[in-house]
Design a protein that fits this description.
Number of strands: 14
Order of helices and strands: EEEHEHEHEHHHHEHEHEHHEEHEHEEH
Number of domains: 2
Structural class: alpha/beta
CATH class of the largest domain: Alpha Beta
Largest sheet: 8 strands, mixed
Shape: elongated
CATH superfamily of the largest domain: Alpha/Beta hydrolase fold, catalytic domain
Length: about 475
């Protein structure tokens, strides 16, 4: 008789996230399931169940349904871009099971969320296993693999029509789909995980992702596993992915199906076990990606002179109280206030943008206080592996010297937010609505630090050379 594993729930605010735990080995292995997966149904297909039990024989296996899928609640409150929400889900489950650090295992599409979790939370990530995940899904001038946009659009249209039918197995699991019982199982698995419209929306987001500029920032041991004969994502994309991650290991295993749980699995399991056993002496990384939000009051010196010391002090005290409250509400960390602004750190650009939007609305009444005209605020958000900063006025000068993509949020209050990562989903739509026709949301690219100098500011001379203040201080020998 098949063992029935207990489904438990982790709380994230008002939402419940369904998870299961199997095994007692020293290394925690978190499975970030791909779209179309549901933890309660996995055990109904014996080869899938056998694969999971094999993983649990040399790890403590942790599986969960992301919010909005399977047995988990839909995400409540203001939505974040999908990968930020999935990072929240994984962290909530790790906290619930008492895991300080874990190895994350991501499949074709869920590998994107695993990569970004590892980059943001290296202190919680012991290692990374990517099964069939590419750096991006669409072809580009500098990326010769993947789908064209027309092919992607046709694939999404076909998915909406086939979702929950036998055709889904034939598209992604051609070898396993030879068994009619598997086709029925896979169709049921899809139906119980997501409805077809949500599945199509998710795939549209996945196909738009591009993590190439995140990959060099990874500082965790990484294993990239690809199927030799899987036609959906060829091995060349896996070699490209592993080549962009420092010290990553790339392996090819037999099979033509997208998911690693389908037969044959012996070689795949051997590679994963060897990888986990080799992690026990791995060093802990000391750097992480973060979104840094900074603000200042435009013309603060002139404003202070116009309203007088007492009124200015009252204005700044009110400003600081509002800033502390809103940063905390958006799960940021306030580093410091600067007298006429602040610096805060967030896990991702979606929260930084949302916080900037809320701050504009909350601080708008300050525009009418006292004499001397209105008080304008400007804000900027950068997304990189930083723990230091420079002021918004210097960022504005650097921006003027170097043309680049930017997002203007709320032009009426002169608030600028530059997010150097492609923000998709609700966070992007919000930013577009707030532009006021000043600057459209184009395709920001993540800026990668090299450890000593930020390449965004190469060629910037004169006063703007203080861009080096963004860099971590050079350690003394």
């Amino acid at each position: 008789m098949t063992e029935v594993l207990e489904t438990q729930f982790a709380w994230l605010g008002e939402d419940r996230i369904a998870y299961q735990v199997l095994g007692e080995a020293p290394v925690d292995l978190v499975i970030c399931h791909s779209v179309g997966d549901c933890i309660d149904v996995h055990w109904d297909w014996p080869p899938f169940a056998d694969f999971l039990r094999s993983l649990a024989s040399f790890s403590r296996l942790i599986m969960f349904d992301r919010r909005g899928a399977g047995a988990s609640d839909p995400a409540s409150g203001q939505a974040l871009p999908s990968w930020e929400a999935r990072a929240e889900d994984a962290r909530a489950v790790l906290d619930a099971v008492g895991s300080e650090r874990a190895v994350l295992h991501g499949g074709v599409d869920s590998g994107v969320a695993a990569i970004l979790f590892a980059a943001i939370h290296p202190d919680r990530t012991q290692g990374l296993i990517l099964g069939g995940t590419p750096a991006r899904f669409l072809r580009d001038t500098d990326y010769p693999w993947g789908f064209s946009q027309a092919e992607a659009d046709r694939a999404i249209e076909g998915l909406e029509q086939m979702w929950g039918t036998d055709g889904m197995a034939e598209a992604g699991m051609p070898e396993a789909a030879r068994d009619p019982a598997f086709r029925r199982f896979f169709a049921r698995l899809c139906r119980l995980s997501l409805n077809r419209r949500d599945a199509a929306a998710y795939f549209r987001w996945v196909l738009s992702t591009d993590v190439r500029e995140v990959l060099p920032s990874l500082r965790v041991p990484t294993l990239v596993v690809y199927r030799e004969d899987f036609q959906g994502i060829p091995p060349e994309q896996g070699r490209d992915l592993s080549g962009r991650i420092p010290d990553a290991r790339f392996v090819l295993v037999p099979g033509a199906d997208g998911a690693l749980y389908s037969q044959p699995t012996a070689e795949t399991l051997q590679h994963i076990e060897e990888f986990l056993l080799g992690l026990r002496g791995a060093a802990e990384p000391d750097r992480a990606l973060a979104a840094i939000l900074f603000t200042d009051i435009v013309g603060s010196t002139e404003r202070a002179a116009a309203v007088g010391d007492r009124e200015w002090r009252n204005l700044i005290e009110s400003h600081d109280v509002v800033v502390r409250t809103i940063v905390a509400q958006n799960q940021g960390r306030l580093i410091r206030t600067t007298g006429d602004g602040m610096l805060a750190i967030f896990d991702g650009p979606g929260r930084a943008i949302r916080c900037a939007n809320v701050l504009q609305d909350a601080l708008r009444p300050a525009r009418t206080r006292g004499a001397g005209g209105s008080s304008h605020r400007r804000s900027g958000a950068h997304w990189h592996r930083d723990r230091r900063h420079r002021g918004p006025h210097r960022c504005a000068r650097a921006r003027a010297r170097r043309a680049g993509p930017a997002v203007d949020l709320g032009s009426s209050t002169d608030a600028r937010c530059r997010v150097r990562y492609r923000v998709r989903g609700p966070g992007r739509a919000r930013a577009q609505r707030r532009t006021g026709g000043v600057a459209p949301l184009r395709r920001p690219r993540l800026t990668r630090q090299t450890g000593r100098i930020d390449r965004r500011f190469e060629g910037v001379s004169g006063e703007d050379r203080d861009a080096r203040d963004l860099m971590p201080a050079r350690r003394q020998a």
